[in-house]
Amino acid sequence: MRGAPPGVEAGRRARDAIVAKYYSDVSRLRQSLAAERPTMRELLARDPPTIRLQDGTLHEVDREQLEALAGIIPRYLWSLVRLPFTVQLVRYEDGSRVYAVAGDVWQRRAVELIVRGRMSPDGLERLEPEEFRRLLRTAGSMVFTMLTI
Question: What is the pLDDT of residues 80-96, one digit of tens each?
Fold first, then answer.
């Protein structure tokens, strides 16, 4: 039995190369994610305030942003709120998008305080585009964004 025709074999090789590149890129991007999620209290005590990433490097948080955040989030929450905040941008085929706040209820409550100035029992699970921009303006160095399709 003979192998696949040359065009089919070339197509398979191209597909395999694309899939391998995709997995390589995803693996590299994951190395930029946070390896630790210190509490706000812990981060405020660090000099400089840093978060260790998956690849072992340190991400330095903007001290001014961190202190501004400390002025928004009540002190009693500093040991419950973990940083960085993770927001997942989900894009749909119809072109719409959703900014989903990842993490537990304390992260969602803190984000709601930042963008709306109040806190609900469940916190804010989804952000409108303007709320996402407000979060970035206030705490940009403490917001990690993940993309999904």
Answer: 999 999 999 988 888 88
Render 32-54 in DSSP notation, one character per residue.
TSBS---BHHHHHHSSS-EEEBT
Q: Is 143 within 8 Å of 125 (Cβ atoms)?
A: no
Helices (H) and strands (E) in the chain, counts: 5, 6
Residue 52 near residue 108, CB atoms below 8 Å: no
What the block records as the tokens of 104 is 């537990």
Torsion angle, CA of 131/134/135/139, rounded to 10 degrees?
180
pLDDT at position 31 is 65
The pTM of the full predicted model, rounded to 2 decimals, is 0.79
Rg (CA), the chain: 20
